[in-house]
Design a protein that fits this description.
Elements: H1 2-14, E1 17-20, E2 24-42, E3 48-63, E4 66-70, E5 76-84, E6 94-96, E7 99-101, E8 107-115, E9 118-121, E10 132-133, E11 149-151, E12 160-167, E13 171-179, E14 187-195, E15 205-214, E16 220-228, E17 230-231, E18 237-248, E19 257-268, H2 285-288, E20 294-302, E21 309-316, E22 324-334, E23 341-350, E24 352-354, E25 357-368, E26 397-407, E27 413-420, E28 433-441
């Protein structure tokens, strides 16, 4: 009886809330824009002309981000977390790029019963395992489009049910038991165990293994991965990582048995920046975001017979050399038969300071061989932008961009002289254009 009373008191305490709720905060987060005029010469057609361009953006906020949570004491308590997250600095909702943006709605972030370090979660979930995000010099994990997701989650995905788990500072174990819908008798389970990289045994070592199973069809999937960040000194480190996913469908006409292996080795000297910009031609934001200062070599391979191996070397200088920007990226596919696919791009820029002036020469080039036809690195969550040019199938492509920016001569103004080639490897080389530009911006 005393135990029942104690449990009742704990539940009552757990129902209390502490305040960190969204609050009204109508404000302008940012208001910016630019305008430019450009005059150019087409070296192939010998024609000239002007081009004007303007761009504006206003981001407003109606509410601050916040959350509201239950709290409890003792070993047994119920946790519920309601959350409103900030989105792109736009708050709960507001205007962005001239259009109304709904932002993130309030959502249930956590719903669990706690029993010490054990718990039972009652939100929708999944019965998949194995997704592998890699830290690479470019197209790394950390960006919303998941550029660094080299292996997807595998297994038949049922969402309705519960998850039982255990977690502490060293490890976490989760076992999902779910159905595909209400009243169907179709069940699946997934179990995953993970060693956290902050563990007290081998700091920097992370490992994960999982297994998923569908009871009706007997389909199953399994996965394993590991990564280890080894510090060389306070700045430099080496981080190898490798993972695999495999699926096995039920016997019959649609039976499948697939396995993929992926990994990387990163020699790094900084943290991943998910949303920054390389700031060089061809290295556009969506195609390059998720930059980790360093050099990496990544790969992906299906273990099925007669399949290709994809190798992706990448380099991002970061702030290792003051006033310099540099990056390189390549995609290589080596098939068991046929021609190797190859694409490579590189760029460099340097700020020369002369009193109040900043002179920035930039140069970038890219090459694709005849066999290369489309992006080889993982394509995830809307990351559609490929840094390599669309080219005629079965042809080579090589182009260059060279420019010089001058800033500081007039306030808020950058003057640019730029040469942009076309395909210099075409049957008739496309010489490209020369442009002169003045841009005023905040």
């Amino acid at each position: 009886m005393k135990k029942i009373v104690a449990m009742g008191a704990t539940v009552a305490l757990a129902a209390s809330m502490f305040a960190a709720e969204p609050a009204a905060n109508t404000s302008v987060v940012s208001f910016t824009g630019n305008a430019s005029v450009e005059w150019g010469v087409d070296l192939d057609s010998k024609k000239t002309g002007f081009k004007n361009n303007t761009w504006t953006e206003i981001k407003t906020k109606l509410f601050d981000a916040g959350d509201k949570s239950t709290s409890g004491s003792g070993d047994i308590w119920a946790e519920l977390v309601l959350k409103v997250e900030d989105q792109d600095g736009c708050g709960f909702n507001g205007w962005q790029n001239g259009a109304w943006k709904s932002g993130n709605n309030a959502k249930i972030d956590v719903a669990k019963f706690h029993f010490g370090d054990f718990y039972i979660g009652i939100k929708e979930g999944d019965t998949q395992v194995g997704e592998l995000d890699l830290n690479t010099a470019l197209r790394s994990t950390g960006f919303w489009a998941n550029n660094g997701r080299w292996l997807p989650a595998v297994g038949t995905n049922y969402t309705q049910g519960i998850v039982a788990g255990y977690a502490n500072n060293n490890a976490e174990v989760n076992v999902d038991f779910r159905s595909d819908a209400h009243y169907t008798n179709n069940y699946a389970m997934a179990a995953e165990v993970a060693l956290k990289d902050s563990n007290e045994f081998v700091n920097g070592l992370a490992a994960k293994a999982g297994f998923a199973y569908v009871f009706e069809t007997e389909d199953y999937a399994y996965s394993a991965s590991t990564a280890y960040k080894v510090a060389i000194d306070d700045k430099y480190y080496v981080k190898p990582a490798v993972g695999m996913v495999a699926t096995k469908a039920s016997e019959g006409a649609k039976a499948t048995d697939t396995m993929y292996l992926a990994g990387t080795v990163l020699f790094g000297w900084g943290d991943t920046n998910g949303y920054g910009s390389v700031g060089l031609p061809y290295f556009t934001d969506d195609s390059s975001r998720g930059m980790t200062p360093g050099v990496s070599v990544s790969f992906k391979k299906s273990l099925a017979k007669d399949t290709e191996i994809v190798i992706v070397p990448a380099f991002y200088l970061g702030d290792l050399v003051e006033n310099m920007k540099a990056a390189a990226y390549s995609e290589i596919s080596i098939p068991s038969k046929g021609d190797t696919k190859l694409a490579i791009g590189a760029g460099v820029g340097y700020d020369v300071k002369v009193d109040d002036l900043t002179i920035t020469p930039k140069f970038a080039c890219r090459y694709q061989n005849k066999a290369y036809d489309s992006q080889l690195a993982p394509k995830n969550d809307g990351a559609k932008d490929n840094m390599f040019a669309q080219k005629t199938a079965g042809s080579e492509h090589f182009d260059v961009t060279a420019s010089v920016d001058l800033a500081g001569l007039i306030n808020n103004t950058t003057f640019t002289v730029e040469y942009v080639s076309g395909n210099l490897k075409a049957d008739t080389a496309v010489k490209g254009t020369v442009n002169v530009r003045a841009k005023i911006s905040f």
